[in-house]
Predict the structure.
Amino acid sequence: MRIALDLAQAAALAGEAPIGAVVVDPASGNVIAAVHNAPIALHDPTAHAEIRALRVAGEAVGNYRLTGLWLYVTLEPCAMCAGAISHARIGRLIYGADDPKGGAVTNGPRFFEQPTCHWRPEVTAGVLGTESAELLRGFFRARRTSGPR
């Protein structure tokens, strides 16, 4: 999760929402993918950190199914990302800060609890959650006080 937080900080410096994601093979401890949010830079509304991490990991392992791999992300995934996590068959999702407004795992639609969800990863919430939340709050506070961009 520390790597994901460093990536989130890099996203903030690039003007992106500070969210980082890392895919790890828990058997070897190897990092398969490490990225941050980039919808602004890539002009892509789907370029959330989780989606980008799943894409990189799929390329790295040569399979769209990432069964057994773990995804670390600094913020509770949204519905789009939760759907992608399910389709990728991620073994465990570990996230930092809860997202009461846009989250879809613990909050909102609770995607993995729906009967239409075909794959449910194990979920661990709150890992370095305070640090993740503080980074997000500081980023958006600064944007509100600096005016429109």
Remarks:
- The beta strands are 20-25, 30-36, 70-75, 92-97, 122-125.
- The helical segments are 2-13, 39-42, 49-61, 79-88, 129-146.
- The longest strand covers residues 30-36.
- The chain has a mean pLDDT of 96.
